Amino acid sequence: MVSHWHILGAGAIGGLFAAALERLNGHTSLLTRGDTVSDTADPGRRTLNILSGDSTTTVDFPTSTASETGYISHLLITTKAYDVAAALAAVSHRLDEGSHILLMVNGMGILEILEKDYPHWRFYVGTTTEGAYRTSGNTIVHAGIGFTRIGRANTDSPPAWFEGWRTLPLPCHWDADITEVLWQKMVVNSAINPLTALAACPNGALLSRPDLSAQLKGLCDEIATISAAAGHHAIASELHDTVREVITGTANNRSSMLQDIEAARQTEVEYISGYLIAVARQRGVPAPLNEALLRSILKLSG
Ligand code: KPL
Questions:
Q1: Which end of the chain is more exposed for a tag (fewer CB within 10 A), N or C?
Q2: Residue located nearest, by CA, to atom 6 of ligand 1
Q3: How many alpha carbons lie under 13 Å from residue 141 in its C-beta half-sphere?
Q4: pLDDT in tens, 172-181
Q5: Higher pLDDT residue, 87 or 35?
Q6: Is the CB of residue 13 less than 8 Å from the CB of residue 78?
Q7: How many CB atoms lie under 10 A from the CB of residue 122?
Q8: Do the bridges between strand 74-77 and strand 122-128 make them parallel or antiparallel, or are there none, so unpaired?
Q9: Distance from CA of residue 290 to its chain's centroid?
């Protein structure tokens, strides 16, 4: 049976997956808050243009206002971390314990909040390295092919809907140990994002500038200690190398946190460094460097 996906948060990543799902089976709807102005003659539809290399694909979607009443069987959430709870609350009357809800959001800690608010609902989590950015409201550039990992705590085998995701042009993998994957991404972001956001530099400067590389070394030591205390031993022992590899592979990138600061947007630091600090406190491990970075970023982003 074909799954009908609703997409909550059609930014660059949400739009990329929405277009891929729509082209796969034609049953994808974009959720709107009801205050967006439609760009098409039909107010119930929206068009996205996906630019990939030299080719442009135009995909037309039905939209659905959050306040409507139709049941949502499959929901992909790709909003900013700090928007998830309110965005989900706005469509919660359309979901129940039979719905499949996939969170593809930066950072950690949101799942715990949602599982408390909706204890009987079925949440999945995912993380992607697909590179995408929006050049205008409706145009998304697919800048780099990545890899998407999806899973659910204590669930070895994927649900039926994942069969469709395996055939998307965006490579997807079911991960039995998704918490480890999310931790890895969160700690790499804790190391790179606040430092680059404060120094207003591309990722590569963290290795090429001696002042920043000294700061990075101390920060990675602290993050590795917290990771080990939280039971993520393999990640802890490889952290310095992993962070160096990510920086080398993304040397010219401006981190998402730097981009948020430059655009005067709220950052996701509370779900990255903030989550790490919360775990450090639970384990009785000091985290002064992460705490100082969190304070500075919060000051900078107002
Ligand atoms: O994920 C990233 C981000 O910017 O959020 C990194 C890996 C740091 C690449 O820029």
A1: N
A2: 255
A3: 8
A4: 999 999 999 9
A5: 87
A6: yes
A7: 16
A8: unpaired
A9: 21
